[in-house]
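Researcher: Good morning. I'm working through a list of sequences from a screen, and I'd like to move beyond sequence-only analysis. For each chain I'm collecting a predicted structure so we can compare shapes side by side. This is the next one on the list. No need for commentary yet; just the structure.
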Amino acid sequence: MQKCPGITLLALVIASGVATWIFTFIITKTIKIVIDEDGDASWILRFIFTILGYTTVFVPCYVLIYLSRRHNLHTLSGCQWMLLRLILTGHTYEIVPESENDNLPERASKHEAKSLYQKALSLFQCCVGLQVSYLVWGILQEKIMTSDYNDGETVEKFTDSQFLVFVNRILAFMFSGVYLLFTTQNVHRTPLYKYSFCSVSNTLSSWCQYEALKFVSFPTQVLAKSAKVIPVMLMGKLVSRAQYKNYEYATAVLISVGMTAFLLGSGETKKGNSVTTVSGAVLLCGYLLFDSFTANWQSALFKEHKPSSVQMMCGVNLMSCLFTSASLIQQGGFFYSISFAARHPVFIVDCLLTAISSALGQLCIFATISNFGPVVFTIIMTVRQGLSILLSCLLYHHELSYMGGLGVFIVFLAIFLRLYYAQQHKKRKIDLSENSTSKV
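Model: Good morning. Structure tokens for this chain:
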């Protein structure tokens, strides 16, 4: 790799990509022949096919990163190595400007110096943005996945949820990319390949969420989501070695208990829903695992490399586009979805509206995680589940039992206690810092 490092590297990456593609194609065809795709455990096959599709991107990227680091190719001069530097270092500069590095602590201190009013206003804006965008997204998503599309001759439903994920991600990538082009940002210093981990976990959590509805009822799935704050905190200890206070654990348990009581007391579930099965339980556990990893990995990237919310949004969605497109191409999802859109033009409008609301929701997600952390974000999203059902009770006159009312009280009591103890802990920390300074 000494004489022509660029050509040799490109040849090895292409060779590894082609070999991986052929291998996964053979494995996929073999599995389809041996195992029935319409069986009760067919979700396992779909999960394997999705992972195989992602592998066709992961393997050549691993070869690229490994060889580049081993031979220090990203440190070479020339425009041809700019993309490689972006992948491995997060920027295209051969030498990072010192002035930008010096500004980072100042910006961090300004961020910490925000008044309580500014933080409260920022948190309120994040809450409203998350509630509105995901309420609209949920309505449109349900319409696409459950409504019949009629072209005058045939009536059919759209079934490929991964294509919807791809459309959402590519539009969010375009929005964030355009925004970055026309605004001044910090020097981007997050290696692009690091976005791939939370990108994969994010797409897989969405996949598990959709698949779980085939085995469990919707209230059961919401019930599992309401307890998400606990696995997020546990994953935080594994990913970023986060330390939580006793009151944080206690209030997390209270929130989960309150949400459980509220959801159980919000009325009977609809008849005809699928009963809970082992497959459904496994998929719900997979959703909780992947989703909790996503929030904590993004939080770790914010702390280590300090990207802006829009930079994080752009990087994660870029990786998601690569992974989902590879899987869709391998499974024929593009051909099915494009032909469906050609038969039903209304479907195109629904997809675009869904993508816009998803992009706005993602921006609110990254802003919330960046400013307040993954646990606060999870609390907001957890409360959203209860508020949506409470709104349904008010609009459609569903009865709310005493247990449901008690659940609402417990949730908001837990949130109040969490904020109160957090403020008290911060106040004690400031007092100790001032006392130590005065002694010196």
